[in-house]
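Example for tutorial group B:
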């Protein structure tokens, strides 16, 4: 969230513009009824939402659903046990470098790498592991941080995952030549610490899994730019004020908030959701060019990654 925009003077949405936990739970229940098996809370920063553990509790109580979260980790050390007790199963933490200056420059955060590392360890201790650690790789910015990150997380039990820098939204000034292909990342790691591919666990897994040949654990790569996986994508995103987005690169969503608040029945709501899902034709990552990057799209800090 650019500091120039989201500064002290910024007026965030009024609370009643956001879905209540009960409204989110209702939508989640209908979605689970239609086959959703995994719910990920992301953001924005999910741990900044007051009483987020109450929402986790409601979602985790839905039958057969796994509840996970992606967080910047800044508040995780304090919250890991509470989240686990509420029913959260796993957590993904973002960390683009171990070097403090580089981390600050990439994330714009006012917390430190130490806070994030403490959050990762607390999450693992609380039973939220194996913790995924997401590193977005920008060529020329943090590619030199790949091997130090590998060294740090080998043998830790956490799964370090390298994400190709994506043109989500328009605010990040994306350029294709800043994308370091995952295959180069794997080659770089393999030269130091030999790795071999691991079979995927699920059809729609976005990360390709690799393991160190010496048994030091697993890593992953998410290659949404160089090896698009639109045809296997099964993700649907819900924004805080009730917009459904069928693609990370969507230009707009379908607002469900008014329907939710106008007394519509569960069956009608389910039919609307099913209609949106069945009609989706998104395949942005397969048709991406340098020109499409300039299209007005929903920002990453809004749609959640
Ligand atoms: C947008 S964040 C939201 C959740 C949370 N605030 C966090 O920092 O993890 C979700 C994920 O998207 C990743 N991400 C952000 N910008 C990205 C980009 N341009 N390309 C690829 N991944 C990106 C982040 O590193 C993070 O792992």
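The residue assignment follows.
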């Amino acid at each position: 969230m650019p500091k120039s925009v989201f500064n002290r003077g910024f007026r965030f949405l009024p609370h009643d513009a956001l879905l209540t936990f009960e409204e989110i739970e209702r939508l989640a229940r209908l979605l689970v009824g239609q086959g959703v098996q995994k719910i990920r809370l992301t953001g924005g920063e999910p741990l900044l939402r007051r009483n987020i553990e109450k929402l986790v509790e409601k979602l985790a109580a839905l039958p057969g659903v796994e509840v996970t979260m992606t967080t910047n980790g800044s508040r995780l050390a304090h919250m890991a046990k509470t989240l686990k007790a509420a029913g959260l199963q796993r957590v993904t933490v973002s960390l683009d470098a171990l070097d403090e200056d580089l981390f600050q420059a990439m994330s714009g955060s006012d917390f430190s790498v130490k806070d994030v590392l403490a959050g990762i360890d607390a999450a693992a201790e609380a039973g939220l592991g194996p913790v995924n650690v997401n590193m977005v790789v920008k060529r020329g910015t943090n590619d030199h941080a790949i091997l130090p990150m590998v060294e740090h997380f080998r043998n830790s039990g956490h799964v370090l995952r390298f994400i190709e820098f994506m043109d989500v939204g328009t605010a990040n000034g994306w350029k294709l030549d800043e994308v370091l292909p995952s295959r180069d990342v794997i080659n770089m790691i393999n030269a130091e610490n030999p790795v071999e591919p691991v079979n995927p666990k699920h059809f729609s897994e976005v990360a390709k899994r690799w393991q160190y040949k010496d048994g030091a654990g697993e890593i992953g790569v998410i290659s949404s730019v160089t090896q698009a996986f639109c045809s296997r994508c099964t993700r649907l995103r819900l924004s805080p004020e009730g917009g459904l987005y069928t693609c990370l690169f969507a230009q707009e969503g379908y607002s469900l908030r008014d329907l939710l608040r106008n007394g519509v029945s569960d069956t009608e709501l389910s039919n609307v959701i099913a209609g949106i899902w069945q009609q989706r034709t998104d395949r942005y990552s397969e048709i991406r060019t340098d020109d499409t990057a300039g299209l007005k799209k929903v920002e990453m800090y809004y749609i959640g990654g």
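The first helix runs from residue 21 to 33. Compare this with the pattern of hydrophobic and polar residues in the output above.
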